[in-house]
Amino acid sequence: MYRDPVPENGRENGASSFAPSEPKEREGEIFRTETVGKEGKLSESILSQEEVNALLRGLSEGEIETQAKAADSGEPVKQYNLASQERVIRGRMPTLEIINERFARFFQVTLSATLRKTVEFSPQGIEMVKFGDFVKKIPMPSNINILRLESLRRNILLIIDARMVYLLVDHMFGGSGRGHVKIEGRDFSPIEARISRNVMDLAIGDFEKAWAPVHPMPITYIRSEINPQFAAIVAPTEMVVTMAYRLEIDGQGRTIYICIPYSTIEPIKEKLYTGFQSDQYEVDSRWINRLQERVEEAPLEIEAFIGETRFTLRDILGWKTGDVFSLDRYVSEPVEVRVEGIVRFLARPGIFRHHRAIRIERRVPPPTRYEEEDETSPL
User: Fold this and answer.
1) How far apart are alpha carbons 243 and 126 in whole angstroms?
2) What domains, with CATH codes, occur in the chain?
3) The pLDDT value given to residue 258
4) What is the mean predicted confidence (pLDDT) over 88-95?
5) For residue 311, what is the DSSP state?
6) Torsion sign across C-alpha atoms 345, 348, 354, 356
7) Which of 117, 216, 276, 377 could form a disulfide with 98 if both were Cys (CB 3.0 to 4.6 A apart)?
8) Distances (CA, A) of 251 to 110, 192, 254
9) CA 48, CA 28: separation in Å to the nearest integer?
């Protein structure tokens, strides 16, 4: 219970010396803090009025610094906007790189077969840039195709340089591609638009096939533009993945771009950052076809086995013209047709156009590996 303050010259009658008392303000004292020392005694930190006035005077005259100096590390300071949509993309996307190479390989074969000429179509790399910066690199005019990824419900761009469109049209109609065409100030003609659309359809098919082992990517054509301003699929500050390809025909080449917003592939980014698991099981159809052609042209030795019997060496040495001996098969039994020593067919012997011949009656299944080892075993 609190009591009235104790007089300085003594104690109140019956009052305890430990009764709390309110501190009396000393003359000239405006600030006082009390802390408990290590020995349990109270210590006072007091600023007198003169010290406070000196501090205020130093602040007003600038003698005392109010801001701490930043440590000088010698490195330039870079500004960072937390409101920016630019994302920090760490590491490579190996699966996307493999898809990129697969698409380039597929489209090179397809376009070479279409033009009946040697075409070089090679990937030039993958970049992550802002859409506004990418648009500045697009030559004008260009054949800008807006496509829709149905599985991800977002749009992408397939961009073909106008000079490449004219080059493709020239080669389609048997030209050499060496002619000069003025591209400024005009739109594509109906024939040029049709040819570029056909080439784009071929590219879409190969692009879908390249993505198939990773994620189904059906694509729908929306429209074509020649001005990048009318093909803004995302905001200028949004990040996009750009894939550049170099298309060369008879030494003349241009760049083709595919632009995919990063937000489009973000739902499947885990598949793109991991390894291409199905690539090791994938087979090259061209290699298989060539191997099959070579195997089919391989020469084989075929023989018709009529029968066998056993003789001693004395019997063989005593053979003479006109001797007859019987085999282990009846005339009604079919003969074995052996391919490289393996029985594969049963046939009937006969004569065809004055030549000895056999007629295949049925196929014999190939022996299993166990049967082959059993037949060749020395035991």
Assistant:
1) 5
2) 94-291 (3.40.1550.10), 300-311+326-376 (2.30.330.10)
3) 93
4) 67
5) -
6) positive
7) 276
8) 18, 21, 10
9) 6
Q: Which two tokens stand for residue 245?
A: 């390809």
- As to burial, measured by CB atoms within 10 angstroms (0-12 exposed, 13-18 middle, 19+ buried), residue 237 is middle
pLDDT tens readout for residues 141-157: 888 999 999 888 889 99
Distance between CA atoms of residues 117 and 119, nearest Å: 6
* Residue 363: CA count within 13 A, CB half-sphere: 3
For residue 3, the tally of other CB atoms under 10 A from its CB is 12
Q: What is the pLDDT of residues 98-112, one digit of tens each?
A: 899 999 999 999 988
Contact 129, 239 (CB under 8 A): yes
Q: Average pLDDT, whole number, for the chain?
A: 77
Peptide bond into 366 cis (omega under 30): no
Taking a C-beta distance cutoff of 8 angstroms, is the pair 210, 248 a contact?
Answer: no
Is the per-residue pLDDT at 135 higher than 70?
yes
- Tens-digit pLDDT profile for residues 156-191: 999 988 888 888 888 887 776 665 556 565 678 888
Question: Which residue is it, tokens 């980014």?
Answer: 269
pLDDT-based confidence at residue 259 (cuts at 50, 70, 90): very high
Q: Specify the 3-state DSSP secondary structure of 278.
A: helix
pTM strictly above 0.90: no
Instruction: Please answer whether residues 143 and 230 qualify as being in contact, where contact means their C-beta atoms are separated by less than 8 angstroms.
Output: no
Kindly write down the DSSP assignment for every residue of 52-65, as one continuous string: HHHHHHHHHHT-S-
Q: Which is nearest to 247 in space by CA: 191, 178, 199, 182?
A: 199
- pLDDT of res. 15: 44
Determine the pLDDT at residue 12. Answer: 46
List the one residue out of 253, 263, 227 whose CA is nearest residue 146: 227
